[in-house]
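Hi R.,

As promised on Friday, here is the backbone we talked about, encoded as structure tokens. Could you run it through your design pipeline when you get a chance and send me back a sequence?
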């Protein structure tokens, strides 16, 4: 049964987020708000939690999971980033964009794409999620909260509780999110002189980055 934490959207209470962080540290799965839609998250170095995350979401190991990072410096520790890629990342973070990059050795091999050795990475702008990441002290492994059989993400914490409270350890309610996933941009080709490839158009504005679908 999930614990439900209702926090202020602009000034989230550290006491409540600390409790949510403790549940994550124990291997729990949490539903958290982002600056796009709600996401399912767990700690990075827990195989059982990552397997549960994929099961709840209904995806296999070929589906890119995402590391939610506190800032660009932390992101750069988990991906191989050249200067050209870094400039685009700097222009887009924090924000509702997910980037596909070659995973560094800091990422457990079981979490990267089995064929491409890539991983999704994101620096969110949402105040509650940033505060939770600070308390957790490390990136969180994440995937968009789209229930099995659905096509759009859930954006209301009470609806999430109705649908999956028995599968989660925590639900963090900071009010409704946008009901749109992040924009996903594959940057791996840039490392070989190619161009970014937009693989999903979501809330992140492509024009702001000089890109188009």
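Update: got your reply. Pasting your designed sequence below so it's all in one thread:
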């Amino acid at each position: 049964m999930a614990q439900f934490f209702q926090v202020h959207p602009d000034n989230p209470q550290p006491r409540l987020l600390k409790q949510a962080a403790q549940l994550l540290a124990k291997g729990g799965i949490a539903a958290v708000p982002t600056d796009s839609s709600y996401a399912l998250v767990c700690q990075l170095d827990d195989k059982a939690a990552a397997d549960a995350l994929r099961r709840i979401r209904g995806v296999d190991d070929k589906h890119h999971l995402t590391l939610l990072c506190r800032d660009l410096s932390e992101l750069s520790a988990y991906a191989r980033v050249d200067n050209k890629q870094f400039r685009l990342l700097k222009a887009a973070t924090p924000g509702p964009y997910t980037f596909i990059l070659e995973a560094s050795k800091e990422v457990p091999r079981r979490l990267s794409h089995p064929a491409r050795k890539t991983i999704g990475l994101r620096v969110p702008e949402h105040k509650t999620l940033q505060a939770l990441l600070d308390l957790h002290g490390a990136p969180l492994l994440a995937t968009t909260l789209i229930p099995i059989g659905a096509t759009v993400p859930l954006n209301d914490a009470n609806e999430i509780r109705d649908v999956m409270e028995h599968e989660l350890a925590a639900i963090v309610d900071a009010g409704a999110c946008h009901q749109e996933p992040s924009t996903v941009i594959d940057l791996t080709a840039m490392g070989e002189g190619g161009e970014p490839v937009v693989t999903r158009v979501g809330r992140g504005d492509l024009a702001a980055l000089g890109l188009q679908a």
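One thing I noticed while checking it: Residues 157 and 173 are 5 Å apart (CA to CA).

Thanks again,
M.
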